[in-house]
Write a structure and sequence with these properties.
The chain is of the alpha/beta class. The chain has helices spanning 7-17, 36-48, 63-73, 92-102, 123-128, 164-170, 186-196, 220-239, 246-270, 276-300, 302-309, 313-316, and strands at 2-3, 26-31, 52-57, 78-82, 86-88, 106-110, 113-117, 148-150, 159-163, 177-178, 181-182, 200-203, 209-213. Helix 8 (220-239) packs across helix 10 and helix 9 packs antiparallel against helix 10 (276-300).
Length: 318
């Protein structure tokens, strides 16, 4: 479990792990803010915990750094990840353990992430949720009541499990932010790497986590920021591992701009409106502008181009 300056919510997550029906596990808390308050909280909790608890500081800021630090510190063959703003169902680990035992062919798995609204969710948010409760910009995951596995099932970092060997063999998580820039596609990129090697990822409906959503995430501004980040991540996915020239990037950006500039203009009039039509227009406008901006950054930043070509993120950190 990575955490960044959220000791109280990390403590709630640890408390939910106390009631697991599966008994043989350890928990690694990776402190990406390297704060004394987090270390002391983990030490106090660990003194009375029903499971083995380890504190790992990771000063390099970035979710992929924290997750990889936790993976290196963990001892188990199956690594299970959640975030510090989630709590877990009592059968969470048992559901994953059963899935990997009964289905030895799977490389990884993910499960539901249901919402805990810390403030009343506005109507436009509830309307965007699918019938199964799936809402990507809030990392809410719902794929139905049945187990299934496939070569295109995606991981969701708030609730996922993966074989240790698979994680290290494919090069780990891709970054999301890298320092102060939005770089990559995170666990989505990890999914792509697993699938490229023929790995199967399962959906385990009984491996449930509860994702706590604060009020500041229930705003149009937050929605637009997440959509912009997704646009950048999509651009990263397109160019990751591929050779490209500045001319190709310019053509790519120009084609997007030529196709979507009317949406950018319309966005000036529908910005922050919450009816379903306006939200769809904003999504298209914000995501495509972010792709163009990312391509332009790639044209002029040799550092960013080097990072986009990287694939073995867990290896380069050692």
């Amino acid at each position: 479990m990575p955490t960044y300056k959220r000791a109280d919510s990390a403590l709630e997550c640890l408390a939910s792990l106390q009631t697991q029906t599966f008994g043989d596990f350890e928990v690694v808390v990776v402190d990406n803010g390297v704060e004394t308050v987090v270390r002391e909280m983990v030490e106090r909790f660990g003194a009375a915990a029903t499971f083995s608890l380890k504190y790992v500081p990771e000063a390099r800021l970035g979710l992929h750094y924290a997750r990889h630090a936790g993976a290196r510190a963990a001892k188990a063959d199956i690594l299970v990840f959640t975030d510090d703003d989630a709590t877990v169902d009592e059968g969470w680990l048992e559901a994953y353990a059963r899935a990997f035992k009964e289905h030895p062919e799977i490389a990884g798995a993910t499960g539901p992430a249901n919402p805990v609204w810390e403030e009343l969710a506005p109507a436009w948010v509830e309307n965007m949720m699918g019938e199964n409760g799936h809402l990507g910009f809030l990392s809410l995951v719902g794929e139905g009541p049945n187990y299934y596995s496939s070569l295109d099932q995606q991981f969701y970092g708030v609730n996922m499990a993966i074989r240790r060997k698979t994680l290290f063999d494919v090069g780990g998580f891709n970054p999301e932010s890298y320092g102060d820039i939005w770089l990559g596609d995170g666990e989505t990129g990890l999914s792509h790497k697993v699938h490229r090697q023929g790995g199967i990822v399962a959906y385990v409906p009984d491996a449930i986590v509860w994702h706590h959503i604060p009020g500041q995430r229930l705003t149009i501004d937050y929605y637009r920021r997440r959509i912009a980040n997704q646009g950048a991540a999509d651009c990263y996915s397109r160019f990751n591992r591929n050779t490209f020239s500045r001319l190709q990037l310019a053509v790519f950006a120009s084609k997007i701009a030529a196709k979507y500039w009317p949406f950018w203009l319309i966005d000036l009039f529908v910005k922050r409106k919450t009816d379903s039509h306006s939200l769809r227009l904003q999504l298209r406008a914000v995501a495509t502008r972010a792709r163009v901006a990312y391509a332009i950054r790639l044209m002029f930043s040799s550092k960013l181009r080097r990072l986009v070509h990287e694939d073995d993120w867990i290896g380069m950190e050692q």
